[in-house]
Amino acid sequence: MGAGPGSAMAIPCLATPRLLLRPLALTDAPAIQALFPRWEIVRHLASRVPKASGNAASRRLSLRAGMRLAAAGEGDFVEGRLPEELWELTAEEWRAHQTLVTP
Hints:
The protein is an alpha+beta fold. The protein has a domain at 47-103. It has helices spanning 29-35, 39-42, 56-64, 91-101; strands spanning 14-15, 20-21, 48-52, 68-77, 80-88. Strands 3-5-4 form a three-stranded antiparallel sheet. β4 (68-77) and β5 form a beta hairpin. The model has no long low-confidence stretch (mean pLDDT 76).
């Protein structure tokens, strides 16, 4: 298992009897996106979050979570250099958005 095309070094899998750590793959996106819009997770991130821009589902999730697109360009990802979007959200904006979407 490698890190993907264009990467300089393969990322190894690490295994113990109870845990398998492997490089992220595109197939992991739905599980990651299901957890991302939770403040107890987001609060540990910077107020700006870079994302590969080719993922329409991730973009919709960011918009639903109240984030806004701050910049676009290119970034280095596991798969290599890809188009990137930089999304941002403040804690106050997160809380305000949560009161709008929470019944």
